[in-house]
Structures are given as C-alpha cells and as structure tokens.
Write a structure and sequence with these properties.
The complex is a heterodimer of chains A (138) and B (126).
Chain A: H1 6-12, E1 19-22, H2 25-35, H3 40-43, H4 53-60, H5 65-68, E2 76-85, E3 94-107, E4 110-120, E5 126-137
Antiparallel strand pairs in A: 1-3, 2-5, 3-4, 4-5
Chain B: E1 10-11, H1 17-27, H2 37-42, H3 52-66, E2 72-79, E3 90-98, E4 102-110, E5 116-125
Antiparallel strand pairs in B: 1-3, 2-5, 3-4, 4-5
Classes of the chains: A alpha+beta (138), B alpha+beta (126).
Chain lengths: 138, 126
Amino acid sequence: MSNLSATLTNIKNIKIAPYTYTVEKGKIKEFASAIGDEKEEYMNGETIPPTFPTVIEFWGGKSSSSETLGLNMSKVLHGEQAFEYLGDINPGDEITVNSTVEDVYTKASMNFVVLKKEFVNQNNETVLISRSTIIERH
Amino acid sequence: MNVGYQFDSLQKEEITHTQLVRYAGASGDFNPIHTVVPFAEKAGLGGVIAHGMMIMGFTGQAIGNWFPVKNLTKYSVRFKAMTKPGEKIEINGSIVDETEDLWICEARAVNELGEVKVQAHFEVKK
C-alpha cells in the first residue's frame, strides 16, 4: 500500500527470533485461576485452557510482540485473535514459537499488524497456529 | 445437541483492578494500560482497561463448560469494545451450523448493558 509509513514498511520486514517455552503445571493453574476458571483439570495442571497459548507467547519471548515490533504501547489494542488447535499441548512439552509478520496495513487512521505464530513441540509436530491482529491507534 | 441449541450462559463476577494485575502476571502481558492508572489515563483511556485476552479467557471458560476442551479445533474472536474494572461479563453461545465431524458455534461476551465485548467463533469435534 502506498500510504504505509516508513515504520510500517520496516515492521513488515522484521524477523522475530524463535523462542522456546516449557509448559509447567503450576503455570497452567496460575493462569486458569487468574481467569477464574477453576476446573479440576486446570487446577491439577493436566490440561491447558483454550487461551493458554497466550502465556507461551508472552512468557516465551524476551518481550511482548508489540514491543519487539516497536509499536507504541500506549496506543496498542488487540483487534482479533484466532487459535487453530492441531494437536495437544501437555505439561512438560517444550514448545518453540516461530513468528512471522503476515500482513501490515493502515485503515481508518489506524495501523494493523497481523502476526502468525506456529507452535512446534519437541517432536517437531506443529500443534497450534495463532493469528493476532494488533491495532496501533494514531 | 442440534443446530440452534443455546448453551447455558456463564455469569462472571465483577472485574476488579486486582484481577487485571493478577492476569497480567499470569499471562505475561505487562502493558501498563492494563495495570497502571496514570499511564492508562495519559493514553486517553480514562483508566485501566482489561486485557482483551482475559475476556477471550472468560469465553474459553464457557466453551470448556459446554464441551471437553480437547475437542476444540478452532477458536477465534473479534474484540469489539474495551472492558473496565467494575463491569460484569456474561457469556452466551449457540450452535449455528454443523458438518459431519464438527459443531460450528458462536459465542458473545456482553456486559450488563448488553454491550458486546467479544464476538467468538469456535468449532468442536463431535
């Protein structure tokens, strides 16, 4: 698009380094408790809640994706989030996250960044795909 | 179950600032717009706002009440409005379509005034 700022063009070309996160039972319990979802399978850490992949995204990397992309944190909003569950994620799994900037565009005076993250386990199986649409208000 | 089936709604307790701090620590999303009031005010938000992902988490809690979570194959949301401490969220959902193997469902997280916070689409193995 012709109206992309220089910053947005840079974002499109940013390479985000892969990172690895080990799934722990205590973290599953902590996360489910924070939501107020105290199902037995979460409290004993055997099963992950549907949105647990966000924990892997935030705690696995050195900083949040928005910071890595150089976005203004006071102007950032989450527009959309999609998870595709391709396999199980269990406690003890070592999940490597490979991130790519899939799309960048400007609409209604806001910047949109679509991030795709592939979650690969220790057996080299892709177990989940996450797509986040991040909005930066002008 | 059949197409058109309405799930039992989930009524969440009032969101507190403390819950946002707790969710920040648990999720690792430490953007101060969710936890630091002066920062959020300066950002023009009139105070801290809940993590959208927490409201997606509430909706995920409802999905887990309705189906075994291991059967979930897709779950996506659009964040429609910001949520603040003091609001009470309710999650409603229904089966809107089916294939041979899947239930195609929708859910919404709304506040007491009926304002939609999250519009969700999800698919579950039969």
